[in-house]
Every structure is written in C-alpha cells, then in structure tokens.
Amino acid sequence: MDKKVKAIVTRAVPYREADLILTLVSLEEGKLTASAKSCLKPGAKLRYAAAPMNFGEYMLSGKGDRYIVTDCVQYDSFSPITADIDKYYAACLILEMLARLSPEAQPSLFLHSVNELKAMAYENKAAADAVCDFLLHTLNDNGAGLDFSACSACRCILDGDASYSESDGVVCPHCASFDGIKIDAVSRAFLAGENREIPDSLKNRANIMLADFVYRTLGVRPDGSYFKEQR
Q1: CATH class of domain segment(s) 2-76
Q2: Quick one: CA torsion of 61, 64, 67, 71, rounded to 10 degrees?
Q3: Fold designation for 81-230
C-alpha cells in the first residue's frame, strides 16, 4: 500500500551496508518507521530525505508497519541549526520529545515543533527560548498546560516566587502546599514569558525545572543530553 504523509525525520539508524532505518513523525498518522534504501552510498538520490530534521512530503510503500521511502518532496532541512551547537541540541530534544509523544497523530504538537525549528534556523530565536516554548506547548497540547502568571488556586497575579505541585499546578506562596516545589521569581518570569532577557545559565535553570514538571505530568523525561551540554 502506498501513502503520502507530511513528516519530519526524528532519527536515522544505519542498517546493513548502506540503508538507514528512519523514525518519521507525520502530521497525519504520528510515528512511523521506514527504510531508506542505499542512502549511505555516495550520491544516493534520497540521501537528503534520510537526514534528521528533514521535513517534507514522504511517499511510502509497504504493508502494515513496514514501509520503504520511495520519494520525498523536501519542505525544509533547517540546516542553519547545525552551525550552532546549542540550537542543535535543542533541536534534538524537540525531535525526541515529538517522537515519544506521537504514537498517534498530534497535529498541534507537530506544528509547534516545526515552528520552533524554523524560529531557531531563520528567526534568530535562542535555543533556551525555543526549548522553553516547546515544553510549554507540550504540556498545553496534552491537556496539562501551566499558567506561570496567575495562581491556579486564588487567581492572584504572580509577580515573585511561586510553587508547583502535581495536584495544585502553579500557585502563589500563600496557596502553596507543604510538598510544593519552589519556583524562584526569575525562573517564573522567564517561564511566563515576562522576561526573556536573562543570562543563559538562568534560562537553563528554569528549563530544567520545566522539564521536571513535564516528566511529573506526562511521564516522559525530556532529553538529558541537552541540559548536560548547557552546564
């Protein structure tokens, strides 16, 4: 059976002498696995289609869950990202999370992923800002959005420290439970989008905290290698 899907390559693993096994996440069907035949050979026609981050319309042939890439119309490769190590690791985090959260189609998360890659590649968006916004989208798109600007209990405006718990969400210090995780004022303002003009070290601290909230809420831990590289 042949099919066309709009998809992005999240992983490419060598197989046999010259093939690659691709993990594709598609807009229409979620995660798929497909073989890219002979793509490790010099001058391979579809070598570009087997590169991680390649985004395009893939033509697949196969049965059940076994597919072969027969053609690809490339929309974008986001190649400028590979020239910046921070953006490259941020892109790896985005692609890994997209794949792990897309056993079925997640159109909104798919589009948010593409938009964050585009912003890093062509709009000079900082890696830490892209990671933050992607993780916030991940929570929102899975029905677990967090509001870092208002207390989820009393609805007061948050302008300093806050607290997080799985049962309460983000709350002010007055509504915080004894087992809540403290969110310092700088991290809260960054996660709320109120102040993104802070040093990268503080952005990364806030993102590590946000990644922990994602894990506690969705049970999927964002890629640790990104945060390791930022230390």
Answers
A1: mainly beta
A2: 30
A3: de novo design (two linked rop proteins) (1.20.1440)
